[in-house]
Design brief:
There is one protein chain. The chain is mostly helical. It is built from ten helices and no strands. α5 runs antiparallel to α6 and α7 runs parallel beside α9. The chain starts with a helix and ends in an 8-residue tail after the last helix.
Length: 174
């Protein structure tokens, strides 16, 4: 919606609520309402709307992605990972899968920082390698692998992966 793009969230809410009154089974409308809540940093409310969208359309890849993002913001990293995996399973877009693999790795790094379990970093590296296979020209995964090796105190690998990422084109092209 134009109001959403203009960050006029009160008008966007008004419009989507009217649409949902007329068509309460409009899964995309519930997702859109969840996106508005997300932009307002009202993540629990975003999840309620996103869950309504998923009840109406179980294989709604964009809704699973939005649910993962909200869970991440709430620091529920295990849940976020699970929903990013669901998004990867359902999405038909390689670019979306690439981004979700990267988000899984970022959530695993967050879990490592909380729990100190190095196996989480190894799992993150595996997820990121999936990303490099999909889009070897994008730097994000390489840089994050470098970060993982830095946390593992494997300095030479950290430098190699980071340098490799710095030699790639910016990911803004996604």
């Amino acid at each position: 919606s134009l109001m959403f793009a203009l960050k006029n969230y009160s008008s966007a809410f008004s419009n989507i609520n009217k649409a949902l009154e007329l068509e309460p089974d409009f899964a995309e409308g519930w997702l859109f309402k969840g996106l508005i809540f997300h932009e307002l940093k009202r993540y629990d409310e975003a999840l309620i709307s996103i869950d309504k969208a998923l009840k109406l359309k179980e294989n709604f890849a964009d809704a699973w992605l939005s649910k993962a993002r909200a869970q991440h913001e709430l620091k529920r990293y295990d849940e976020a990972i699970r929903f990013y995996e669901k998004h990867i399973q359902l999405s038909g877009w390689p670019e979306d899968k690439y981004l979700s693999w990267n988000k899984i790795a970022q959530n695993l790094i967050s879990l490592f920082l909380i729990k100190g379990n190095k196996e989480l970093l190894e799992t993150a590296i595996s997820a990121l390698i999936e990303s490099t296979l999909m889009f070897p020209e994008y730097p994000d995964a390489y840089l994050t692998i470098g970060e993982c090796y830095w946390h593992l105190k494997e300095w030479q690998k950290a430098i190699e992966w980071t340098n490799n990422g710095l030699n790639k084109k910016p990911a803004e092209s996604l």
